[in-house]
Amino acid sequence: MKNKLFFTLLELLITIAIIAILASMLLPTLSKVKEKGLAIDCTSNLKQLSLSNLLYADDNRGFLVPLSIDAFGENKHRWHGTSGDTATFGDDTTFDPSKGPLTQYLGTSGKVNACKGVKFPESTKAFEKGCGGYGYNEMLGKLSDEWDQAAHASGYKLSKIKINSDKVMFADSAVLVGSDGQFSSNGPFFGPSSSIAAPGGWMLFPTMHFRHQKRANISFADGHVTDLPLVSSAQGANAWQLGHPYPNNNPSRDKHYDPAKF
């Protein structure tokens, strides 16, 4: 009787060991499958965003949605939402992501669908959180490369873009923030960024986020979406998977971001 009990216990231990080994082999695969699912969901969000912007242009004399029409004024209107009448300079307590210029093209919610591949701290400013973790190419969101109110009056004219399939429109984005939700080059958290900084631009700290297995989902001005790996970065941001899918130089800025250049 004792021998039979011992044999049964040994069998149980062996079975448990086999299950543990199989689980350790399957968990990484399951994790990759989950990540792939998140990336596919993100791709769908970006396709919807790009289509919304193209439909907006169709209804607005061919001009794309502006990045922020009052960036040099009250700063209440962003491409992804609007602050209330009582707001003061982008105050996020009244920011409504369902009242942006793309609302009518974004489905029943009227909001940008958030990327599920990243989590932002609750302290993050709501007017940035409304972008869903996606940034808009700041050079497409303006009439020209000037940094003044006149340039921000509208987005770029779609018909004047040089090679639409080359120009970044929207992409996974993020900035480093502290526990208070404010920008911090040391993090330790990610916060959303509603704009994508071009290589060689005024924003030395890159904002494209390669969050999907070290790749970023990117939509282009012709509406197609693809994922690209991180190629270059700046200011040590590569350690945070923030950077560019192209070399960090002016030729890359011209070809892939500036709508007025080839």
Notes on the structure:
This protein has 262 residues and is an alpha+beta fold. It has one domain. It is built from three helices and eleven strands. The model has no long low-confidence stretch (mean pLDDT 86).
Instruction: List the quaternary state of the chains.
Output: single chain
Number of DSSP strand runs: 11
Q: State the separation between the terminal residues, measured CA to CA.
A: 85 Å
Using only CA atoms, what is the Rg? Answer: 23 Å
Annotation field: number of helices: 3
Shape: globular
Mean pLDDT across all residues, rounded? 86
Number of domains: 1
Beta fraction of the residues? Answer: 5-15%
* Structural class by sheet pairing and helices: alpha+beta
- Amount of helix: 25-40%
Question: How would you briefly describe this protein structure?
Answer:
This protein is α+β, with helices and mostly antiparallel strands.
Question: Could you give the topology of this structure?
Answer:
Layout: H1 2-59, E1 77-78, E2 81-82, H2 126-129, E3 134-137, E4 168-172, E5 175-177, E6 189-191, E7 195-196, E8 208-209, E9 215-220, E10 225-229, E11 242-243, H3 250-256
Parallel strand pairs: 3-7
Antiparallel strand pairs: 1-2, 3-4, 4-9, 5-6, 8-11, 9-10
